[in-house]
Amino acid sequence: MKQNVLRWLLPALSLAVCVVFCTTLLIYVKPMEDISLDLSLGFSEEAILDDPVEYDEKGWQVCTREGDTATPLTPDGFGGYSGLALGQTFYFSRVLEEALDSPTLQIAPGEAMFSVWLDDTLLYTDAPALDNRIGALTLPMNDRYRPDPIRISLPLDYQGKTLTIAQASPTYMETSRLSVYPAAVHLYCGYAYESSLISESFTTALSAAFLFAAGIVFSLAAVHFCEPNLLFLAISAFLHMTQSLIQTSFFFHYFGTIHNTAVSLLPSVSIAALLLFLSMRADKYRITALLPTLLYFAVVAANGILHILLPHFSVGMVLPKLLHTYLPGWISLFCLTVILFLGCLHWRHSSFFYRIFVPCALVGIILYLPYTVLIAQRGVFFGQLVLSLRSGQVTYLCHYLFRPVTAAALLSAAVDVIRTETNRRAEKAAMDEHREMILGSYENMRRQNEEIMKLRHDMISHYEALRGIVGDNAAGAYLDELIGQNKKIRSVIQTGNNMLDIILNNKLNAAAEKGVKTDIVRAEAPQTLPLSDADLCSLVMNIMNNAVSAAANAGVPQPFIRLDIHVRNDHLALTCENSADTGRIRAEEKQMTVPRHGLGRKIIHRIIEQYHGLIDTVSDGETYSVRIAIPLFSETDVNP
């Protein structure tokens, strides 16, 4: 009773403790609420409306100014404005009515120069040498991309005052129509930035640490289990980790700007590694899954070469646009569909990995997409999805599909690795136990043989003593006959190797008792063999146990065992052929949790491999034969 209570109570208490401290660990994941306001005109739900008339400018007025004369610019409904000349400075302004403690203004990084006023008071400028008056300013563009945002502390009496931001526009455009995009603007309180940085860095650290640990574990598992496909999963995890680190807002503070090729190719290469892992796990469907995966890998490689050769290619060029914009998304979506379909087939054919992966991936997609639509990208997801699909792209959709698929692959592979290692250890323990049992059985046979030999010797001695007493009469003649018969008694098999003789004679006697006919073709073996006593015992006894069990089966009409042991070309050759109803054995094994003789066969193959021997098995439905050849020399004899 006490053990039953503990069996249910301990898991519940362990789970409760984990939940409590997991909650403690995630304290800093969520930033403080209502401390940051996004005042940006782009990258919001208004920026993806189809009708520019419905575009909500959040109180901003976007215009050009010449002195006191303001000329409004025309919104395109996607965050852009037109109606100004190349190189002309434009202004966007609004009244700040939001109440925040310790107010701070942030303008996103970019190539443009800025000047900022609160009413008519200049708060900040990138060009202090110019005439920094509203309507009298012409700002140039920066020579290089500025990775750091502009942060400006606002006075405490900012409410009700007009914030005006002047932004430079490009002096060159690839199209004849100039469209400008006001920089993203955020307003937050003094501790909002710290809170958001803590939240972002902690969230990034958690995910990066998890992906790094997964990469390390699967790299070691690939070596331990000699499974190359796990290395591809490790590479995918490492690339996901790198991508999450690069996407943080503070990355450029540490490393500055990096080449866009590395950033743009990371997701594609990570997906390629993931698809290679899933394809190589497809077993008999591997070729079917690998063909589209290799095509995707070729497109990603061509895309990388294109970025290296043409780092500043125009999106209007047909080949770069095809390789960079369209093909990767469509091919990766096709590969994922094929793999999930093949995974369903594998699920039916008892593939343990796909039995976990397919439902996890489908459930992950079903749960993650509503989370993205309703919480993470509320009001934005469908608009961006429709916009990308209208342009013939599915990269945006794949971005959200592959996240739960990657998580499902990592989880399924981890469970599969744990299961494989657990089964390996359990099998090793069972093999060790089986080996001990075999050795114990051999020891019993050896003692029994010694006892029989001792009794036979004593019996002959008694017969000879009696013969000396009775003299030359009928009783004496009878005793002479008994003494002669006992001295002629020999074992059924005499190979020259004592251990082989004990094992084979015992097993052949057991076969005879079960009505199995035995036939000895040859029985020759060296006195000493390169195998250890334990391995020789395990090898021969497992072979003989399997043969006797199969031949003595009730479904075998003419049970027999045929043995041939001899030395040939410096090898010990052993052939054991026996009658067997192999079809019935296979049918019974499919219904058993542990296949019959499966452990014994694994022990046989392990020993043959350990001693660099050869093994061959043949079955024609009515007979089963195993042939082994073990070299009579060790590696140290060849290479001293």
Give your account of this protein's structure:
- It is a single chain.
- With about 650 residues, the protein is of the alpha+beta class.
- It folds into 4 domains: about 35-190, Jelly Rolls (Sandwich), CATH 2.60.120; about 190-260; about 265-350; about 490-640, Histidine kinase-like ATPase, C-terminal domain (Heat Shock Protein 90).
- The protein has 16 helices and 20 strands.
- Strand 19 and strand 20 form a beta hairpin.
- The strands form 5 sheets. A 6-stranded antiparallel sheet has the order 3-2-6-13-9-10, with no helix packed on it. A 5-stranded mixed sheet has the order 16-17-18-20-19, covered by helices on one side. A 4-stranded antiparallel sheet has the order 1-15-7-12, with no helix packed on it.
How much β-strand is present in the residues?
Answer: 15-25%
Tell me roughly what share of residues is in helical segments: 40-55%
Overall structural domain count? 4
Given the C-alpha coordinates, what overall shape results?
Answer: elongated
Q: Which value, in Å, is the CA radius of gyration?
A: 41 Å
Query: How many helices?
Result: 16
Structural class assignment: alpha+beta
Low-confidence stretches: 43-52, 589-597, 636-640
* Largest sheet descriptor: 6 strands, antiparallel
Mean pLDDT: 80
- The CA-CA distance between the termini, in Å, is 63 Å
Write the CATH architecture name of the largest domain. Answer: Sandwich
Give the CATH topology of the largest domain: Jelly Rolls
Say how many strands there are.
Answer: 20
CATH secondary-structure class of the largest domain: Mainly Beta
The largest sheet has its strands arranged as 3-2-6-13-9-10
